[in-house]
Design goal:
heterodimer, A: alpha+beta, 5-stranded antiparallel beta sheet, rod-shaped, disordered C terminus, B: alpha/beta, Rossmann fold, 5-stranded parallel beta sheet, 49% helix, 19% strand, globular
């Protein structure tokens, strides 16, 4: 792997600080040593100058007294060769310059030096314009009596020396600095380079690339870090592999389950439709597509209101709002077929307290055949009843006409006749015709009852359910049958409770039942009485018709509510009524949610009972519905 | 002269009704018959009968249709229509009411009832000077 020698970021950060630090140190050192050097040099010059001045002062006493200017000149010229000396001049006791080394003239500032009559060495700083800075050392000759020697030390030289030294120092520091920085750079890189590798490695691990490797073998903290990371990577990889495997297994299982469920749904014969809370279709199965002759793509994502109309959308909405109820309605399918839709909401099963669902599941069954069969049943019943009634009409009609004609036009001619045979014949004819008429009536009643029971059993009856006051209905039934009681001279006992609660039922059918029971009671009772009792029993109303007639044997009791069963010996006894009355009563009472039964003792009389449920406040009908599929009809 | 029209495809029933209504004939009421709805409509337009006995199950035009046509025609809607039928269900009675039938009698009918009805209607019509 190529090793990039990029400047480590760490290094970059600290480099600026290091540079500043170094500069500060360098400058401080340079200045401080420069200053020290200056001071030392000044001191040295001063002492040098003092020594020279003293020396000249000491050795020029005589010459000065002799005013030997040239000797003095030669002496002071000598000293000019000493480094640092800039000038030397001697002044006498009057302050007149005797000799000097100035070329060509003595500068003005020198002339202005006050000659202090000091007895010792005096030192002062001198600045000349254009000449530079000097240290002037004045040594008294013979304690000032003979004069003074002035030695001027060149401060300029000090300055240049100092500057040179400072520069040298700075240069040295700079070199050391550069060297250190370079060293530092390499050192830091040595650390940061493996760190870079590790961070690159970590980045790769973070993006799940476990294939990379890092090769750091140093035995320090970095090496430790590298090893730790490598083992961490191994662990991670293991964990990831395991989880990947687990996920794969779960996915496979999920796919299998899904495939199974999909197969189940796709193979259903009924259509399945699933919607969300807004009624938008989320799922359909092939059966449903077929039923509506719409492709899956035309169904999914569409609102069911747009595709199937308002009634269906209402069904769906209701099922979602009350997700624990089941709702049904009929719906038109493609090709003029008809289906029944059963919708139920999808429960949330959360802590929500309302019943609103998160969607709706609708099952649709093609009921075209069922309806066809139904229609055929209805048609058959009405056709049969019509077909039978028409000839019966003629039979009864013509018989009655014959009777009238006979009575009005023929028999009256024989009324006075004493011919016994004729009278007998007339009587016989009259009786026979009456028999035909009454049998005709019986036939009519039979056809009506057969039609009735067929409709009841087929569920083709249209019930008119309403609130009924039992007492009213019973009174009407009693009124309708009162003539029967009178004819047979039977006593009638009425025992009806006050304050009977209301029941829900079909008024006409209720009356039908009571009339039937009352007329049966009269029919099978020769002497005695018939009682009608109406009482409230718990949450039911119980009606009973009790007679003192011939009663029913135990054997017959079981079968008395069956079709065409009459009590008594069917071979010898003439059948009374149609044999269907009690079956019809049973159908009616049971539709209303009640019960009907008989208690009887042969020879003593019979008691027929039926119950009807009291109208519950909630308004729910307790009657059995007529739907093929249970559920609330929308 | 009052007129009664009998419309039924069954000749037996036509015969029966004629015999039942014979007493009226003796009192000057004219009886006519028609064997289907089309013939019946012609007769109605031509004769303007006071009472029409109308059967339901007939070929070509059934009783409901005939009644509807008659009742929607201003010229002939005044005839009193008595529907005769073997069907006695609620739905049929409602249908009859919807098309404007004046009276609905189920077969087999009560002859006295029938005669009584004719009497009643003719009386009213005579009183009204129809």
């Amino acid at each position: 792997m190529a090793q990039k020698m990029i400047m480590s970021k760490l290094f970059k950060k600290t480099l600026l600080i290091i540079i500043i630090l170094f500069i500060v140190i360098a400058v401080t050192i340079a200045i401080s040593s420069g200053w020290n050097l200056y001071k030392d040099l000044v001191q040295e010059y001063k002492s040098k100058g003092t020594a020279i001045a003293k020396s000249i002062a000491g050795s020029s006493v005589e010459t000065l007294l002799n005013r030997d200017a040239s000797t003095i000149q030669a002496m002071i010229d000598q000293f000019l060769e000493i480094s640092g000396v800039f000038y030397v001049f001697v002044v006498d006791a009057q302050g007149e310059i005797v000799s000097h080394t100035f070329v060509p003239n003595v500068p003005d500032e020198i002339l202005k030096i006050k000659n202090e009559k000091a007895k010792t060495i005096s030192i002062q700083d001198l600045n000349t314009e254009g000449g530079g800075k000097f240290i002037d050392i004045a040594a008294p000759i013979l304690e000032g009596i003979a004069g003074y020697v002035h030695v001027g030390m060149d401060k300029g030289m000090i300055m240049s020396q100092m500057q040179a030294a400072m520069i040298r120092q700075l240069a040295l520091i700079a070199i050391i600095f550069i060297f250190s920085v370079t060293m530092a750079y390499f050192l830091v890189n040595k650390i940061s380079q493996p760190l870079n590798q590790l961070s690159e490695y970590a980045r790769k691990l973070a993006s799940h690339d476990f294939s990379s490797n890092v090769d750091i073998k140093s035995h320090d903290e970095i090496g430790l870090l590298a090893d730790t990371m490598k083992s961490m990577a191994t662990d991670l990889r293991e964990v990831f592999d395991r989880y990947e495997q687990a996920i794969n297994d779960a996915v496979v299982e999920l796919q299998n389950t899904l495939a199974y469920l999909t197969a189940v749904i796709d193979n259903m014969a009924d259509g399945l439709l699933v919607t969300d809370t807004d009624g938008v279709i989320t799922h359909v199965n092939p059966a449903l597509s077929y039923m509506f002759a719409l492709r899956e793509t035309d169904l999914i994502g569409k609102n069911c209101r747009d595709l199937f109309g308002n009634e269906f959308a209402e069904l769906v909405r209701k099922s979602i709002d009350n997700s624990y109820e089941v709702y049904t309605s009929e719906i038109g399918l493609a090709h003029n077929r008809i289906g029944r839709a059963v919708a139920t909401g999808i429960h949330q099963d959360t802590f929500e307290t309302d019943d609103k669902g998160i969607g709706s599941v609708i099952l649709i069954r093609d009921i075209t055949s069922e309806k066809e069969v139904d229609r055929m049943k209805t048609d058959f019943i009405s056709t049969v009843s019509h077909e039978l009634r028409t000839p019966l009409t003629s039979v009864r009609g013509f018989t009655e006409i014959i009777k009238r004609k006979l009575e009005d036009d023929i028999f009256m001619k024989f009324s006075d006749d004493s011919d016994k045979k004729t009278v007998k014949a007339v009587k016989r004819i009259r009786e026979n015709i009456d028999i035909i008429l009454s049998e005709g009536e019986r036939l009519t009643a039979l056809i009506n009852d057969v039609l009735d029971i067929s409709k009841l059993e087929a569920g083709k009856v249209e019930w008119k359910m309403e609130n009924i006051q039992p007492a009213d209905v019973i009174e009407r039934a009693i009124g309708a049958t009162s003539s029967l009681f009178e004819q047979k001279k039977l006593a009638f006992v009425r025992d009806i409770d006050n304050d009977l609660p209301e029941v829900i039922g079909d008024k006409d059918r209720f009356i039908q039942v009571v009339i039937n029971l009352l007329s049966n009671a009269v029919k099978f009772t020769e002497t005695g009485s018939v009682a009608c009792r109406v009482k409230r029993t718990g949450n039911e109303v119980t009606v009973s018709v009790i007679d003192t007639g011939i009663g029913i044997s135990d054997a017959d009791k079981e079968h008395v509510f069956e079709k065409f069963r009459q009590a008594g010996d069917t071979l010898t006894d003439k059948p009374m009524g149609t044999g269907l009355g009690l079956s019809i009563c049973k159908q009616i009472i049971e539709y209303h949610g009640g019960r009907i039964w008989v208690e009887s003792e042969l020879g003593k009389g019979s008691s027929f009972f039926f119950t009807l449920p009291v109208n519950a406040k909630s308004g729910h009908t307790s009657a059995r519905g007529v739907d093929i599929i249970p559920g609330k009809e929308v | 002269m009052p007129k009664i029209l009998i419309v039924d495809d069954d000749p037996v029933i036509r015969n029966l009704l004629e015999q039942i209504l014979e007493p009226f004939q003796e009192h000057g009421v004219e009886l006519m018959t028609a064997e289907n709805g089309v013939v019946a409509l012609e007769a109605v337009r031509r004769e303007r009968p006071d009472i029409i006995f109308l059967d339901v199950m007939m070929p070509k035009l059934n009783g409901f249709e005939v009644c509807k046509i008659i009742k929607n025609d201003n010229e002939i809607k005044d005839s009193y229509i008595i529907m005769l039928t073997a069907k006695g269900q609620e739905v049929d009675k409602q249908k009859a009411k919807d098309v404007g039938v004046d009276c609905y009698i189920t077969k087999p009918f009560n002859i006295s009832e029938l005669i009584g009805k004719v009497d009643e209607v003719l009386d009213i019509r005579i009183k009204l000077g129809a």
